[in-house]
Amino acid sequence: MAKKVDVSFMRFVYSDDEWVREVKEPTGSLLIVDVYNKSFGPTEMLATHFQNYFFDLGEKVGLRFVRAERDKLKHEDVQSVPLGSSAPLFLFYLDGELKEKVDGPIIPDIKANIDKYAPVLTKE
């Protein structure tokens, strides 16, 4: 049996109000949203990768992760995932602005977008 990955660093979004608060508000960090359909659940195969990115890069770059259940949200970015689809969609936001989309669990594309958009944190 596979070991469960700690996803406590991720936020979960189940309503449009939470979407606005977690995704659309500027934070100075790159936000990666894993959009999934309820019947298939979030992309567990990438949870380990996300955990590694978060803990390996977290002190160097601004990086946050959110999982959003498509079935409960009306935002147009989320609605691009067809109801009942097993394929996830990964959305990349910087300061509330959508920068990129990755259709499916394509790890090299996800990592490339982290490298491209995640702001480097400055030490004071």
Give an account of the 3D structure.
The structure is a single chain. The chain is an alpha/beta fold and 124 residues long. The protein has a single domain, classed as 3-Layer(aba) Sandwich (Glutaredoxin). The protein is 28% helix and 25% strand. The chain contains four helices and five strands, in the order E-H-E-H-E-H-E-E-H. It has a five-stranded mixed sheet, with helices on both faces. The longest helix has 11 residues. The chain is globular, with a radius of gyration of 14 Å.
For the record, the count of structural domains works out to 1
Which segments are poorly predicted (pLDDT under 50) over 5 or more consecutive residues? Answer: none
Order of helices and strands: EHEHEHEEH
- What gyration radius follows from the Cα positions, in whole Å? 14 Å
Query: How many β-strand runs?
Result: 5
The coarse overall form would be globular
Strand order of the largest sheet: 1-3-2-4-5
- Biggest sheet record: 5 strands, mixed
CATH architectural type: 3-Layer(aba) Sandwich
Distance between the termini: 44 Å
